[in-house]
Amino acid sequence: MTEPTALPLFSCRCPCGASAAQIAGRPLGRFFCHCTICQAVYQQTYADVTVFWGSAVQLPEPCNLQFRRYRLPPALRRGTCPVCHAPVLGFLRLAPFMQLAFVPTRNLLQRAALPDPAMHIFYHRHVAEVSDGLPKIAGYWQSELAVTRLVMSGLSHPAQR
Ligand SMILES: [Zn+2]
Ligand SMILES: [Zn+2]
């Protein structure tokens, strides 16, 4: 049985601070994404992304985030700040009752509590060569599969749901 008090709390904030969300739950995984959408929205060669359960995210009420659907990756809704237009977080629906939250790691205030990045995905889209020891996953479906595996391995830890 898990103790509710054991859930770590994370604060997610856009760069200008106008948009924020609370996340009550353990991170399921963290990776670097080289997809063209990340390159465009973060204006970097790749993005540092941390994954949580969607249900762990508490959006502000009323929610000021502007959600937009992207065709790739499938069923991903990215929420951006109406003021600075930077991405705040995104939701990926895996199944009717299963949703993941993809949070740009730079938006999380408690960075010391996060796992280390496990891999690079969408590496076939990379514009800058990265020479670290992490696995480089190329290919669309290979990348999706690698994220699914990462999240599933995150589930096997205790005190997670
Ligand atoms: Zn991406
Ligand atoms: Zn903002």
What does this structure look like?
This protein is α+β, with helices and mostly antiparallel strands. It has a single domain, classed as glutathione-dependent formaldehyde- activating enzyme (gfa) (Alpha-Beta Complex), CATH 3.90.1590. The protein is built from two helices and ten strands; from the N terminus they run βββαβββββββα. A seven-stranded mixed beta sheet has the order 6-7-8-9-4-3-10. The chain has a three-stranded antiparallel beta sheet with strand order 1-2-5, with no helix packed on it. β8 (87-95) and β9 form a beta hairpin. The radius of gyration is 15 Å and the shape is globular. The model has no long low-confidence stretch (mean pLDDT 88). One zinc ion is lined by residues 14-16, 18-19, 81, 83-84, 86. Residues 33, 35, 37-38, 47, 122 line the site of one zinc ion.
CATH top level class name = Alpha Beta
Secondary-structure element order, N to C? EEEHEEEEEEEH
The CATH H-level homologous superfamily: glutathione-dependent formaldehyde- activating enzyme (gfa)
Low-confidence stretches: none
Query: Which fold name is given in CATH as the topology?
Result: glutathione-dependent formaldehyde- activating enzyme (gfa)
Number of strands: 10
- Main sheet record: 7 strands, mixed
What would a concise description of this structure say?
With 161 residues, the chain is α+β, with helices and mostly antiparallel strands.
Helix-strand blueprint:
Layout: E1 9-13, E2 20-24, E3 29-33, H1 36-42, E4 47-53, E5 57-58, E6 66-70, E7 76-80, E8 87-95, E9 98-104, E10 120-121, H2 140-155
